[in-house]
Amino acid sequence: MNWQAVFPEIALLAMACVVALADLWVKDKERLLTYCLAQGSLFVIAMIQLWYFYAGFTLYAMQRMVVADPMGHLLGLFATLATMVTLVYARPYAASRDMLKGELFSLSMFSLLGILVMVAANNFLVVYLGLELMSLSLYALVAMRRDSVPATEAAMKYFVLGALASGFLLYGLSMMYGATGSLELGEVFKAIGTGEINRGVLILGTVFVVSGLAFKLGAVPFHMWVPDVYQGAPTAATLLVGGAPKLAAFAITIRLLVEGMLGLAVDWQQMLVLLSVASMLLGNLAAMAQSNIKRMLAYSTIAQIGFMMLGLCPGVVSGNTVSASNAYSSAMFYIITDVLTFLGTFGMVMLLSRTGHEAELIDDFKGLAKTSPWFAGVMAVFMFSLAGVPPTVGFYAKLAVLQALVSTNVAGFIWLAVVAVVLSLLGAFYYLRVVKVMYFDDPVGAHAVEGTRDARLLVSLNGAAVLILGILPGGLMQMCAQAIVQMFAT
Amino acid sequence: MGTARRRRDPDNKKNMPLLSLAIWLPIVSGVLLLAFGRDDRADAVRWGALIASVVSFAVTIPLVTGFNTGTAALQFVERHRWIERFASYYLLGVDGLSVWFVLLTAFITVIVVVSAWQVITERVNQYMGAFLVLSGLLVGVFCAMDGLLFYVFFEATLIPMYLIIGVWGGPRRVYAAFKFFLYTLAGSLLMLVALIYLYYKSGGSFDILVWQRLPLTLHAQVLLFFAFFFAFAVKVPMWPVHTWLPDAHVEAPTGGSVVLAAIMLKLGAYGFIRFSLPIVPDASHKWAWFMVALSLIAVVYIGLVALVQSDMKKLVAYSSIAHMGFVTLGFFMFDERGMGSELTTSGAIVQMISHGFVSGAMFLCIGVLYDRVHSRDIAAYGGVANTMPKFAALAMVFAMANCGLPGTAGFVGEWMVILGTVAKGKFWIAAIAASTMIWGAAYTLWMIRRVYFGAIANENVRALKDVNAREFAMLGVIAAAVIAMGVYPKPFTDVMHVSVTQLLRQTAISKAGL
């Protein structure tokens, strides 16, 4: 058995338990020990993922239940980094809201464990187990402020709808299992390839699998939970729900739809086209009408997910998979950079929140350019990146997806690119409005950005990363391409 | 930029990466000002900005003095691998079509910095920083010979301009800033799809020169032509997508108006000669009548609209649109016979440069008056010449140039375009276009008469103080340039001659049949 393949997961499990136990003896209000222990172990795990990625191997372990491949390592690396960044942003915010308990750290680590399991899954059941581990930890994290009504309401919604989505996915997977007789992705792929399987069952299974994935990604019309949870949850928990888990949802989408069900691509691509256009349309339109920044960013996330899914659509063109690695790597680049920007934006929202004051409204950003010009600049970089204006990384993410669409040379896909471009113009409006509020309006009460020094430094670094990747995006793109190419090679 | 070695053009004897310096010097110094400048050290910020802009201008001078007028090939080329996945290069170079605009941009930036010296007192570092960054990005647009790099610079210019209009603008600045940003973004996003399509068609290259040799069917060319048309027509702006410009001009601070009129409008016209004409020549031929028609509407209709304006800035904004109509007219007057085509095209480029000086100066003059009286209304003035004689003399020079008086820069371009059009036997088009001399004289001189001449209209005007040394120097330099260009335009036409011939040759060859 290849222990090496699952070493990061085992280490993370052990450290999550250690953190949970160690916290019992921590008296300190700041929870410095727990925090350092959690961050230290996450850092080590991130480094292992990075090392594995550069080693470039593909290993199967546990009777081929899990796979360790570069795609998994890259997504795992970014999920781990996202969790680390989230914890840095969350600590001062949680401390001033009586949320800084040991559970914050151990549950975050368990949800990350679920993500890593999903990312490395090579079996329907492992996908499901990882998903449940992640989701259950997140439900609890959203509900961490027990006495806050909106937070508990958000947790209930998240739980009920999340359970429904898991049910959809499980039902779809069971149909695929019934039709193909295997739970292993590779076997399912082969079975579908034989062409001897009842098409009706496969299609029905695909519909349920895609619906379940769309729920988890938050695509229209399965998006209902996203605005409510993003808005209701304490901002620290919003970041945990909206950051790393998106990478996981993307990973299982690739694992299930591409590695398992590429033979059905013609069918699921049509579904994704509809989902993505609906997401971009509704996400962008609804975001314009919001005055709450968390809700606006939730709708913007829906629109971004829609754009990302466009990258998954042109993988298989008239039975030909030539453009597949190009298409999927563009989607992967999109989701990674989107998470990077998302983290920064919510980091800013948390920096602006003070004891006894939630910075929830767009108006809370009023006149930020006068009180803290530096952070207004950083936030503007995030907004322009979400809007896809160069020279920020969001532009190249959109460009990569559009290029994948146009290079199919299919008229339908080229028109889809035009539609995506027009809809992203709608998006520019509300991102610009945030910039407008910061730069053109006068501050309401004169208060500069607070927050601990490490959170402020990290938000600045986050903004710098968005800008530097916007000038030199080549490296990360190459990593994504390499990961996807190697996935196809095995 | 990867490990790829720098590949030098054999013609290029200079070893300094001049174009990179011209782009990055202002950007880096602008960012430094943004990061470290504070209002309690405003004077240091001003001097820093002045030094940065002057040095940035100085590095562009060797571009013209060392320019080889005998070739249409790119000069001062810099080429580095940029984004592996798109096979995109950091590819810079100038030819006769673009080199003057690099200088013009750097020059106008110096003027803008000087013009803001005593006027901007709050957030000085942000104002100066934004203009320096904008200047670097604009130079980048004119130098980029890689489609993706061009697009990045082209779009990035929106961000500083949006902030400049929105932060330092007039009462309706938010509306104007949004209109400016969304209008131009809408146009350029379609161009993005066109660029990706060309990238795909050329087998994975973003090199503009490769695209210019790429065979394309007529159908594809027409679609590409309109994708480019929307991007560039909005920027020029051509009638009927011009409505953002008066708003943006009126609300922008003086420096913003100057850069908008002098440089940003040129991006659109430059796009037509860099992309539309050489890349989709057949579609350009097919739709030239459409472009000519829109240009003539701009010249005549917008000229009449300018006549009835009561706001000085709006008047100059509309006159800009009318003058840019001349530019697009000149570009699309080619035909198979080639007679006079070179005259119209060169004339259009000369018109772009002269309009850069003249419209910039007109806005500066309005800024000088506005700083004193805080009104842009023509009716608020009268008899300014009595209290500000030096200023009125300079303003007269620019007004004369604006109506195209011989001996000023404004005359040369318009004359070349009209002459070329007549040489092609299209007398009536020339006649309609020439009517701009009448409209231009009408609206400009009428405004001059109402603002500068006559008896002193009110106490505000009586209290006016004449221009100080700073203002006199800044306007005087431009006035000298305007007259020099009007009297002796040869250096300008010499530099562009070979490139224009090459452009017309490319445009004359059909790509659809290949």
Please characterize this protein's 3D structure:
The complex is a heterodimer of chains A (490) and B (514). Chain A is mainly alpha-helical. Chain A has helices at 3-22, 32-55, 70-95, 102-119, 124-142, 149-180, 185-194, 199-217, 225-232, 235-242, 244-260, 265-288, 293-310, 324-352, 368-371, 373-387, 393-406, 411-440, 453-471, 474-489, and strands at residues 59-61, 66-68. Chain A has a two-stranded antiparallel sheet with strand order 1-2. The radius of gyration of chain A is 21 Å and the shape is globular. The mean pLDDT of chain A is 88. By secondary structure, chain B is mainly alpha-helical. Chain B is 71% helix and 3% strand. Chain B contains 22 helices and two strands. Chain B has helices spanning 18-36, 42-65, 99-115, 124-143, 147-156, 158-168, 173-201, 208-212, 218-235, 244-251, 254-279, 281-286, 288-307, 312-331, 341-373, 384-387, 389-402, 409-423, 427-452, 459-462, 469-487, 490-508, and strands spanning 75-83, 88-94. Chain B has a two-stranded antiparallel ribbon with strand order 1-2. The longest helix of chain B has 33 residues, at 341-373. Chain B is globular and about 70 Å long. The two termini of chain B are 36 Å apart. In chain B, 62% of the residues are buried. The chains are: A mainly alpha (490), B mainly alpha (514).
Spell out the key features of this protein.
heterodimer, A: 490 residues, mainly alpha, two-stranded antiparallel sheet, 20 helices, 2 strands, globular, B: 514 residues, two-stranded antiparallel ribbon, 3% strand
Q: Structural class per helix/strand content of chain B?
A: mainly alpha
Lateral arrangement of strands in the main beta sheet of chain A: 1-2
User: What pattern of helices and strands is seen along the backbone of chain A?
Assistant: HHEEHHHHHHHHHHHHHHHHHH
Could you tell me the radius of gyration of chain A in angstroms?
21 Å
Percent of sequence in beta strands of chain A = under 5%
Shape, per Cα inertia axes of chain B:
globular
Strand order of the largest sheet of chain B: 1-2
* Poorly predicted parts of chain B: 1-14
Task: Report the total helices of chain B.
Answer: 22
Task: Tell me the span between the first and last alpha carbons of chain B.
Answer: 36 Å
